[in-house]
Design brief:
Protein name: Semaphorin-2A-like
Largest sheet: 5 strands, mixed
InterPro entries: Ig-like_dom, Ig-like_dom_sf, Ig-like_fold
Number of strands: 8
Helix content: 25-40%
Structural class: alpha+beta
CATH architecture of the largest domain: Sandwich
């Protein structure tokens, strides 16, 4: 799994509980074999998943493992791609980055137009 700086990731731990509203208390998450403590950047979901909030550092890369009662249930290799944030140095790098930005902008513009059309349709009902 590849993350870009600033991205939030949700890692699933496929466990089931008798009561879907109760957290899976026996679930433990590890990052590179170190037990994760839950805080503002590492959140445990009620389904036992792990949310990595705002992945910004290479230190957040590594292997994340979910255990239930000492047994590994799921494992994720997380890579942080900092290349996307590097400033272009050569003309060809600049042109490639500019092309990427233009394509992304066109996607946003198209999605906005679709949203506006749906909003107009739903608003007329």
């Amino acid at each position: 799994m590849v993350a870009v700086p600033g991205q939030t990731l949700h890692l699933r731990c496929p466990v089931t509980s008798r009561d879907s509203l109760q957290p899976a208390l026996d679930v433990s998450w590890y990052h590179d074999d170190k037990l994760i403590t839950y805080d503002d950047l590492n959140l445990l979901t009620t389904a036992g998943g792990l949310v990595l909030v705002t992945v910004t550092h290479l230190q957040r890369a590594g292997v994340y493992r979910c255990e239930l009662s000492g047994q590994t249930v799921a494992s994720y290799a997380v890579l942080v791609n900092n290349d996307i944030c590097k400033v272009p140095v050569t003309e060809s790098q600049y042109q490639a980055k500019y092309s990427d930005w233009c394509q992304e902008f066109e996607t946003y513009r198209s999605n906005l137009a679709s949203w506006a059309k749906l909003r107009k349709t739903c608003g007329s009902r």
